[in-house]
Design brief:
This protein is of the alpha/beta class. The protein has 13 helices and nine strands. The structure holds (3S,4R)-3-hydroxy-2-oxopiperidin-4-yl beta-D-xylopyranoside (XIL). The site of (3S,4R)-3-hydroxy-2-oxopiperidin-4-yl beta-D-xylopyranoside has 9 residues, from loops. Its EC number is 3.2.1.8. Belongs to the glycosyl hydrolase 10 (cellulase F) family. This is Beta-xylanase. Pathway: Glycan degradation; xylan degradation.
Protein backbone atom coordinates (compact mmCIF):
# COMPACT_ATOMS: atom_id res chain seq x y z
CA UNK A 1 0.00 0.00 0.00
CA UNK A 2 1.01 3.62 -0.42
CA UNK A 3 3.53 4.72 2.17
CA UNK A 4 4.65 8.14 3.37
CA UNK A 5 8.34 8.35 2.44
CA UNK A 6 7.82 6.62 -0.89
CA UNK A 7 5.04 9.06 -1.74
CA UNK A 8 7.02 12.09 -0.51
CA UNK A 9 9.98 11.11 -2.69
CA UNK A 10 7.78 10.53 -5.70
CA UNK A 11 6.44 14.06 -5.12
CA UNK A 12 9.99 15.47 -5.30
CA UNK A 13 10.76 15.72 -1.59
CA UNK A 14 13.90 14.29 0.05
CA UNK A 15 12.16 12.44 2.86
CA UNK A 16 9.23 11.88 5.17
CA UNK A 17 10.71 11.03 8.58
CA UNK A 18 10.20 10.47 12.27
CA UNK A 19 12.04 11.24 15.48
CA UNK A 20 12.79 8.33 17.78
CA UNK A 21 14.31 7.61 21.18
CA UNK A 22 16.68 4.95 22.46
CA UNK A 23 14.24 3.59 25.06
CA UNK A 24 11.72 2.64 22.35
CA UNK A 25 14.12 0.59 20.30
CA UNK A 26 13.40 -2.61 22.24
CA UNK A 27 9.74 -2.41 21.10
CA UNK A 28 9.86 -4.71 18.06
CA UNK A 29 6.47 -3.79 16.59
CA UNK A 30 7.42 -0.12 16.90
CA UNK A 31 10.85 -0.60 15.31
CA UNK A 32 9.45 -2.64 12.41
CA UNK A 33 7.42 0.36 11.27
CA UNK A 34 10.19 2.89 12.04
CA UNK A 35 12.75 1.05 9.92
CA UNK A 36 10.45 0.57 6.93
CA UNK A 37 12.06 2.99 4.52
CA UNK A 38 8.96 3.14 2.33
CA UNK A 39 7.27 4.72 5.35
CA UNK A 40 10.11 6.73 6.94
CA UNK A 41 13.19 7.85 5.01
CA UNK A 42 14.70 9.93 7.78
CA UNK A 43 15.08 9.80 11.55
CA UNK A 44 16.02 12.37 14.17
CA UNK A 45 18.25 11.24 17.00
CA UNK A 46 16.99 10.89 20.48
CA UNK A 47 17.53 9.55 24.05
CA UNK A 48 17.24 8.03 27.07
CA UNK A 49 15.77 4.83 28.36
CA UNK A 50 14.23 6.58 31.35
CA UNK A 51 12.24 9.03 29.22
CA UNK A 52 10.05 7.38 26.58
CA UNK A 53 9.65 10.44 24.43
CA UNK A 54 11.45 11.45 21.29
CA UNK A 55 14.39 13.56 20.44
CA UNK A 56 17.15 13.73 23.04
CA UNK A 57 20.33 11.76 22.40
CA UNK A 58 22.43 14.51 20.88
CA UNK A 59 21.52 17.29 23.31
CA UNK A 60 24.24 19.05 25.30
CA UNK A 61 22.96 17.61 28.60
CA UNK A 62 23.55 14.05 27.44
CA UNK A 63 26.41 14.41 25.01
CA UNK A 64 28.74 16.65 27.07
CA UNK A 65 27.47 16.10 30.62
CA UNK A 66 30.65 17.45 32.15
CA UNK A 67 33.01 19.86 30.51
CA UNK A 68 35.04 18.38 27.63
CA UNK A 69 33.81 14.87 28.46
CA UNK A 70 31.68 13.46 25.66
CA UNK A 71 29.19 10.61 25.73
CA UNK A 72 28.14 9.43 22.28
CA UNK A 73 26.64 5.99 22.89
CA UNK A 74 22.95 6.99 22.69
CA UNK A 75 23.42 9.24 19.69
CA UNK A 76 25.48 6.58 17.96
CA UNK A 77 22.72 4.02 18.45
CA UNK A 78 20.29 6.19 16.48
CA UNK A 79 22.89 7.17 13.88
CA UNK A 80 23.76 3.53 13.20
CA UNK A 81 20.08 2.59 13.03
CA UNK A 82 19.67 5.20 10.30
CA UNK A 83 22.81 4.05 8.49
CA UNK A 84 21.84 0.38 8.66
CA UNK A 85 18.39 1.11 7.28
CA UNK A 86 19.60 3.60 4.66
CA UNK A 87 17.70 6.48 6.26
CA UNK A 88 18.79 10.11 6.39
CA UNK A 89 19.68 11.49 9.82
CA UNK A 90 18.72 14.95 11.05
CA UNK A 91 20.99 15.85 13.95
CA UNK A 92 19.52 17.80 16.85
CA UNK A 93 20.73 20.07 18.47
CA UNK A 94 23.90 22.07 19.32
CA UNK A 95 23.05 25.36 21.04
CA UNK A 96 19.77 25.48 22.97
CA UNK A 97 18.81 27.05 26.30
CA UNK A 98 17.02 23.88 27.42
CA UNK A 99 18.39 20.46 28.38
CA UNK A 100 21.75 22.01 29.20
CA UNK A 101 24.03 20.49 31.82
CA UNK A 102 24.30 22.80 34.85
CA UNK A 103 27.98 23.44 34.17
CA UNK A 104 26.77 25.37 31.10
CA UNK A 105 23.54 26.93 32.37
CA UNK A 106 24.96 27.98 35.76
CA UNK A 107 28.63 28.45 34.90
CA UNK A 108 30.31 31.77 35.64
CA UNK A 109 31.30 32.69 32.13
CA UNK A 110 33.26 35.42 30.45
CA UNK A 111 32.86 36.03 26.73
CA UNK A 112 36.14 34.21 26.10
CA UNK A 113 35.42 31.15 28.21
CA UNK A 114 31.90 30.68 26.84
CA UNK A 115 33.12 31.17 23.28
CA UNK A 116 35.68 28.48 23.88
CA UNK A 117 33.12 26.11 25.48
CA UNK A 118 30.77 26.51 22.49
CA UNK A 119 33.62 25.93 20.03
CA UNK A 120 34.75 22.82 21.91
CA UNK A 121 31.21 21.45 22.10
CA UNK A 122 30.43 22.00 18.43
CA UNK A 123 33.77 20.90 17.01
CA UNK A 124 33.67 17.66 18.99
CA UNK A 125 30.01 16.74 18.47
CA UNK A 126 29.79 17.76 14.82
CA UNK A 127 33.22 16.26 14.21
CA UNK A 128 32.12 12.97 15.77
CA UNK A 129 29.08 12.75 13.46
CA UNK A 130 30.86 14.18 10.40
CA UNK A 131 29.44 12.67 7.22
CA UNK A 132 26.46 11.13 9.02
CA UNK A 133 24.11 14.10 9.40
CA UNK A 134 22.04 15.29 6.50
CA UNK A 135 21.40 18.40 8.59
CA UNK A 136 22.25 19.88 11.98
CA UNK A 137 19.92 22.08 14.01
CA UNK A 138 22.76 24.41 15.00
CA UNK A 139 20.72 26.82 17.11
CA UNK A 140 17.35 25.91 18.58
CA UNK A 141 14.68 28.23 20.00
CA UNK A 142 16.73 31.45 20.36
CA UNK A 143 13.60 33.61 20.18
CA UNK A 144 10.73 34.49 22.48
CA UNK A 145 7.24 34.39 20.99
CA UNK A 146 7.22 38.21 20.65
CA UNK A 147 10.31 38.00 18.42
CA UNK A 148 12.83 39.31 20.98
CA UNK A 149 15.93 37.29 21.78
CA UNK A 150 15.52 34.75 24.54
CA UNK A 151 17.69 35.58 27.58
CA UNK A 152 19.63 32.31 27.52
CA UNK A 153 23.10 31.98 29.00
CA UNK A 154 24.37 32.30 25.43
CA UNK A 155 22.58 35.59 24.76
CA UNK A 156 23.23 37.01 28.21
CA UNK A 157 27.00 36.52 27.93
CA UNK A 158 27.60 36.91 24.19
CA UNK A 159 24.68 38.88 22.77
CA UNK A 160 23.78 38.04 19.19
CA UNK A 161 27.42 37.23 18.37
CA UNK A 162 26.87 33.59 19.39
CA UNK A 163 24.83 32.96 16.23
CA UNK A 164 27.74 33.38 13.81
CA UNK A 165 30.12 31.71 16.23
CA UNK A 166 27.98 28.57 16.36
CA UNK A 167 27.27 28.37 12.63
CA UNK A 168 30.93 28.94 11.74
CA UNK A 169 32.08 26.23 14.14
CA UNK A 170 29.55 23.77 12.71
CA UNK A 171 30.53 24.56 9.11
CA UNK A 172 34.20 24.05 9.94
CA UNK A 173 33.55 20.68 11.58
CA UNK A 174 31.32 19.24 8.82
CA UNK A 175 31.29 21.33 5.65
CA UNK A 176 28.76 19.02 3.96
CA UNK A 177 26.03 19.10 6.64
CA UNK A 178 23.12 21.45 6.00
CA UNK A 179 23.04 23.98 8.81
CA UNK A 180 19.65 25.00 10.19
CA UNK A 181 18.12 27.52 12.56
CA UNK A 182 15.21 25.67 14.24
CA UNK A 183 12.28 27.08 16.27
CA UNK A 184 8.55 26.80 17.03
CA UNK A 185 5.72 29.23 16.29
CA UNK A 186 7.55 30.33 13.15
CA UNK A 187 5.32 28.32 10.79
CA UNK A 188 3.24 31.38 9.88
CA UNK A 189 4.00 35.07 9.55
CA UNK A 190 4.27 37.38 12.55
CA UNK A 191 6.82 38.91 14.94
CA UNK A 192 8.68 35.67 15.56
CA UNK A 193 8.88 34.74 11.86
CA UNK A 194 10.14 38.26 11.12
CA UNK A 195 12.93 37.77 13.65
CA UNK A 196 13.97 34.52 11.96
CA UNK A 197 14.32 36.51 8.75
CA UNK A 198 16.60 38.91 10.69
CA UNK A 199 18.68 36.01 12.04
CA UNK A 200 19.26 34.79 8.47
CA UNK A 201 20.52 38.28 7.52
CA UNK A 202 22.61 38.55 10.66
CA UNK A 203 24.36 35.27 9.85
CA UNK A 204 24.89 36.11 6.22
CA UNK A 205 26.18 39.58 7.15
CA UNK A 206 28.71 37.95 9.48
CA UNK A 207 29.95 35.67 6.70
CA UNK A 208 28.45 32.51 8.20
CA UNK A 209 26.72 29.75 6.23
CA UNK A 210 23.07 28.99 7.00
CA UNK A 211 21.32 26.55 4.68
CA UNK A 212 17.91 26.10 6.21
CA UNK A 213 15.14 27.04 8.58
CA UNK A 214 13.54 24.25 10.59
CA UNK A 215 9.94 24.88 11.56
CA UNK A 216 9.22 22.62 14.51
CA UNK A 217 5.44 22.76 13.93
CA UNK A 218 4.14 21.67 17.32
CA UNK A 219 0.59 22.59 16.35
CA UNK A 220 -2.89 22.29 17.86
CA UNK A 221 -5.96 20.64 16.33
CA UNK A 222 -8.31 23.36 15.09
CA UNK A 223 -5.80 26.20 15.29
CA UNK A 224 -3.25 25.09 12.72
CA UNK A 225 -2.34 27.96 10.33
CA UNK A 226 -3.88 27.86 6.86
CA UNK A 227 -1.93 26.45 3.94
CA UNK A 228 -1.45 29.92 2.45
CA UNK A 229 -0.14 31.37 5.68
CA UNK A 230 2.22 28.40 6.06
CA UNK A 231 3.47 29.01 2.52
CA UNK A 232 4.02 32.73 3.18
CA UNK A 233 6.38 31.95 6.06
CA UNK A 234 8.35 29.48 3.94
CA UNK A 235 8.59 32.02 1.11
CA UNK A 236 9.91 34.68 3.52
CA UNK A 237 12.79 32.45 4.58
CA UNK A 238 13.69 31.64 0.99
CA UNK A 239 13.63 35.34 0.11
CA UNK A 240 15.93 36.01 3.07
CA UNK A 241 18.46 33.61 1.56
CA UNK A 242 18.15 30.05 2.81
CA UNK A 243 18.05 27.35 0.15
CA UNK A 244 15.78 25.01 2.06
CA UNK A 245 13.26 24.67 4.87
CA UNK A 246 11.75 21.67 6.60
CA UNK A 247 9.05 20.77 9.08
CA UNK A 248 11.29 19.25 11.73
CA UNK A 249 9.12 18.21 14.70
CA UNK A 250 5.57 18.11 13.38
CA UNK A 251 2.79 17.01 15.71
CA UNK A 252 -0.78 18.32 15.97
CA UNK A 253 -2.17 17.77 19.44
CA UNK A 254 -5.59 17.78 20.99
CA UNK A 255 -5.76 20.52 23.62
CA UNK A 256 -8.19 18.34 25.53
CA UNK A 257 -8.81 14.61 25.58
CA UNK A 258 -10.36 12.24 24.77
CA UNK A 259 -10.30 12.97 21.07
CA UNK A 260 -13.59 12.63 19.19
CA UNK A 261 -14.33 11.31 15.69
CA UNK A 262 -14.89 14.85 14.43
CA UNK A 263 -11.70 15.95 16.18
CA UNK A 264 -9.76 13.24 14.36
CA UNK A 265 -11.19 14.55 11.06
CA UNK A 266 -10.09 18.10 11.98
CA UNK A 267 -6.64 16.75 12.82
CA UNK A 268 -6.54 15.11 9.39
CA UNK A 269 -7.45 18.45 7.80
CA UNK A 270 -4.71 20.21 9.77
CA UNK A 271 -2.06 17.66 8.78
CA UNK A 272 -3.22 18.08 5.19
CA UNK A 273 -2.57 21.84 5.30
CA UNK A 274 1.02 21.34 6.47
CA UNK A 275 1.69 18.58 3.94
CA UNK A 276 0.26 20.64 1.08
CA UNK A 277 2.32 23.69 2.10
CA UNK A 278 5.50 21.61 1.94
CA UNK A 279 4.49 20.12 -1.40
CA UNK A 280 3.69 23.53 -2.87
CA UNK A 281 6.98 25.14 -1.86
CA UNK A 282 9.96 23.72 -3.72
CA UNK A 283 12.37 24.75 -0.94
CA UNK A 284 10.61 22.50 1.57
CA UNK A 285 12.77 19.36 1.56
CA UNK A 286 10.80 17.19 3.95
CA UNK A 287 8.58 16.60 6.93
CA UNK A 288 9.62 14.95 10.20
CA UNK A 289 7.00 14.00 12.76
CA UNK A 290 8.09 14.10 16.42
CA UNK A 291 7.86 10.35 16.70
CA UNK A 292 5.17 8.61 14.69
CA UNK A 293 2.93 7.05 17.35
CA UNK A 294 0.91 8.44 20.25
CA UNK A 295 2.50 5.68 22.31
CA UNK A 296 5.80 7.59 22.45
CA UNK A 297 4.77 11.22 22.01
CA UNK A 298 6.43 13.85 24.25
CA UNK A 299 3.18 15.82 24.49
CA UNK A 300 1.44 14.26 27.52
CA UNK A 301 4.56 14.78 29.67
CA UNK A 302 5.02 18.42 28.72
CA UNK A 303 1.37 19.45 28.25
CA UNK A 304 -0.60 17.43 30.82
CA UNK A 305 -4.07 16.49 29.60
CA UNK A 306 -3.17 17.04 25.94
CA UNK A 307 -2.06 14.57 23.28
CA UNK A 308 -3.07 12.14 20.51
CA UNK A 309 -0.89 14.32 18.27
CA UNK A 310 0.61 11.83 15.80
CA UNK A 311 -0.29 9.77 12.73
CA UNK A 312 -0.47 6.37 14.46
CA UNK A 313 -2.41 5.71 17.67
CA UNK A 314 -0.90 4.08 20.73
CA UNK A 315 -1.79 0.62 19.35
CA UNK A 316 0.30 1.48 16.27
CA UNK A 317 -2.80 1.70 14.06
CA UNK A 318 -3.02 4.36 11.37
CA UNK A 319 -5.30 7.30 12.21
CA UNK A 320 -7.45 9.38 9.83
CA UNK A 321 -4.57 11.89 9.69
CA UNK A 322 -2.29 9.18 8.24
CA UNK A 323 -4.83 8.49 5.50
CA UNK A 324 -5.15 12.20 4.78
CA UNK A 325 -1.40 12.78 4.55
CA UNK A 326 -0.88 9.75 2.34
CA UNK A 327 -3.66 10.81 0.01
CA UNK A 328 -2.30 14.33 -0.58
CA UNK A 329 1.37 13.27 -0.91
C1 LIG B 1 11.59 17.18 23.74
C2 LIG B 1 11.70 15.66 23.85
O1 LIG B 1 10.80 15.09 22.95
C3 LIG B 1 11.40 15.23 25.27
O2 LIG B 1 11.66 13.86 25.42
C4 LIG B 1 12.27 16.01 26.26
O3 LIG B 1 11.86 15.66 27.57
C5 LIG B 1 12.11 17.50 26.03
O4 LIG B 1 12.43 17.81 24.69
N1 LIG B 1 11.39 21.35 20.83
C6 LIG B 1 12.56 20.70 20.53
C7 LIG B 1 12.74 19.31 20.99
O5 LIG B 1 13.40 21.23 19.80
O6 LIG B 1 14.10 19.03 21.30
C8 LIG B 1 11.86 18.98 22.17
O7 LIG B 1 12.01 17.58 22.46
C9 LIG B 1 10.43 19.34 21.88
C10 LIG B 1 10.32 20.83 21.65
Amino acid sequence: SAQLNKLAKAAGKLYFGSATDNGELTDTSYVNILKNTDEFGQITAAYPSSVKTPGNAQKWQYIEPSQASFSYASGDQIASLAATNGQLLRCHTLVWHSQLPSWVSSGSWTQDTLTSAINTHISNVVGHYKGQCYAWDVINEALNDDGTYRQSVFYTVLGDSYFALAFKAAAAADPAAKLYYNDYNIESTGAKQASVVKIISLLKGAGAKIDGVGMQAHLIVGSTPSQSSLQSAIASYVTAGVTEVAYTELDIRFASLPSTQSGLQQQATDYTAVTKACLAEKACVGITIWDYTDKYSWIPNTFPGQGDALLYDSQLSKKPAWTAVSSVL
